[in-house]
Design brief:
With 210 residues, the protein is an alpha+beta fold. It has 5 helices and 9 strands; from the N terminus they run αβββββααββββαα. A hairpin with a 2-residue loop joins strand 3 and strand 4. Helix 1 runs parallel beside helix 2 and helix 2 crosses helix 5.
């Protein structure tokens, strides 16, 4: 994957910010001088991923440094898609299906019905029988939790104990996010932008362990 591939992917997803490409650099184009924007740039033998804030004075926050262009591109892509998907699809669907944590009671059927309306199958949800590449919903002595189960059965990103309603609300966001990024990565492999599926570190980053 290279910076030109990233531009094509984001365009195909309907990304709502313009992108500018120069030799060894990809960045978002600001609509206003005070706008925050993200970029990746080659700096000698490293690739740097930055967030630039201009609200009062210019502030550059380095989000990561990587050895390869592909690695930098993936983190830029995942970071931007996570924010875009949340705003454009996920929160809207959550409200439309009344899956907010403020609702008195939510259960597994509410979650499954909402996901079914979007076209997301039950393979992305685990309860007792843990499935690969799914969000596991369970209860213990501390309350209700979610975890991500990878393609090897390893468990990550256990949430703190919550009410069942709050956990169902969180699970909807995680499952919808996982479904969307799976589609993008499958498309990237089909187009030759990637040679194989993402390692678990990238998935965890996308799901919120930034």
């Amino acid at each position: 994957m290279n910076i030109y591939n990233v531009v094509e992917i984001l365009k195909s997803e309907g990304y709502n910010k313009k992108l500018m490409v120069d030799e060894g650099e990809l960045k978002e184009k600001m609509s206003y001088p005070e706008d925050e924007y993200y970029k990746i740039k080659k700096n000698k033998d490293k690739w740097c991923f930055c967030c630039i804030r201009n609200e009062r004075k210019k502030e550059i926050k380095i989000l990561g440094e990587y050895n390869t262009e592909e690695e930098a591109c993936l983190y830029f892509l995942l970071n931007r898609l996570e924010a875009y998907y949340l705003d454009k699809y996920i929160l809207l669907a959550k409200r439309k299906n009344n899956l907010t944590a403020s609702k008195d009671v939510l259960n597994e059927k509410d979650l499954e019905l909402a996901l079914n309306k979007i076209g997301i199958g039950e393979s992305y949800i685990s309860y007792i029988n843990k499935k690969y590449n799914s969000i596991y919903i369970f209860e213990d002595g501390d309350g209700w939790h979610t975890e991500y189960i990878d393609n090897l059965g390893n468990e990550y990103l256990k949430t703190i104990g919550q009410t069942k309603t709050r956990t169902i609300s969180i699970a909807f966001i995680q499952i919808y996010s996982l479904y969307l990024i799976d589609k993008v990565i499958s498309d990237c492999i089909e187009k030759g932008y990637l040679q194989k599926t993402l390692s678990v570190e990238y998935i965890l980053y996308f799901l919120g362990s930034k």
